[in-house]
Amino acid sequence: MQRVLHFLTLRRLLWLYIIAYCAVAVQNYLLGYGNYNNYLMFAKPFHNLLLDKSIYGLHPNLYFDNYKYSPTFAWLMGPFYYLPDWLGIILWNLLNTLVLLTGVWFYLSDEPDPAKQRRTALLIIFLEALITAQNLQSNNLIVGAMLLGLYHLRNERVWQAAFFFVLCGFIKFYGMAAAGFFLFYPKKPQFILAMLGWIVLFAIAPLTMIPPAHLLAEYREWFDVIVVSKLGLQVSVMGIAQAWFGMAKTDSNYRIIEAVGAVLFLLPFLRFSLWSDRLFQRRMVAYFLLFMIVFNKMAESPTYVLAVTGVALWWITLDVPTPLDRILLTLVVVFTSLSPTDIFPNIVKEQFFQPYNIKAVPCILIWARVQYQIWTQPKPVRQLLQPTR
After folding, report:
1. 3-class SS letters over 101-126
2. Are 42 and 170 in contact (CB under 8 A)?
3. Residue 284, exposed/middle/buried by CB under 10 A (0-12, 13-18, 19+)?
């Protein structure tokens, strides 16, 4: 293993991402139609926009399952509609991969040793991002765009930051939540204006193809679809509460857990004196990415690239990892990233890992660890040195 890690320089690791993730796209195509339905569900709704028909509901002639994304995302995927499936699948995974790599690259650009930190982060993320790529999902793009938004926000480029946050929001609602970190940075009014501007532009973009009345109806259907969507596999606190403690699967129970999670997440923001502290900001981003998944009732395996990216960003904040930190990272690698793979026998996965949502456990433990580190972080030295009166 040490030889492999030594061989994987940053440059080679970047190429490994690109080659491996394009290779799994080819594999999905060769395995047949049923293995790339996720891609078809992204690329083919554009067909209905061309015909001025609803993109929601069942369209078995185009793809299986219900389309659950925005009309704007269907519009943005237009170029892929015109490509042959084999090429579109490869380019889709390539796009997701490049956005992820670019996001990690720029977000870590101000680290003391950027090359080392980028390599470390990408090594931690690799297996989880590969799971997303195998499923032809958009989560690699989402987390990469989030990081690009945070990078631009940090550098006070509010229009660029808002663009990436709004892009995420028009693919998956929770992607826009990262915009909340504008509280840590200057130019708050300008950022809010930029967000509103991009939201309007993204929202009306499909008007280039369909009339206003139809677009409004599509947005109504989109919101209805989101509200009535079936729950995911609940690889999260909710799933653990059900599998381990017999919690009933009711909306009221989900709301209680979500409320507890939200309060725990928001409480560290009360440490106003640390808002401008670089370490606090980095920890809060890691904390946020973990929270978005471990308290998400729709969480499933391909979404965990967000949580594991949070793990990677947390690890980078540690000057000297403790034995406990090392154990927790090992648990993430083994039980979060490797548990869905063929390294474990099917009977172990089907009888233990899946029913007991083991994949979520290490990320929940690290989420608690990050929270502890946030609460025990001392105030900035300049504040401690201020004379008392």
Report:
1. HHHHHHHCCCCCCHHHHHHHHHHHHH
2. no
3. buried
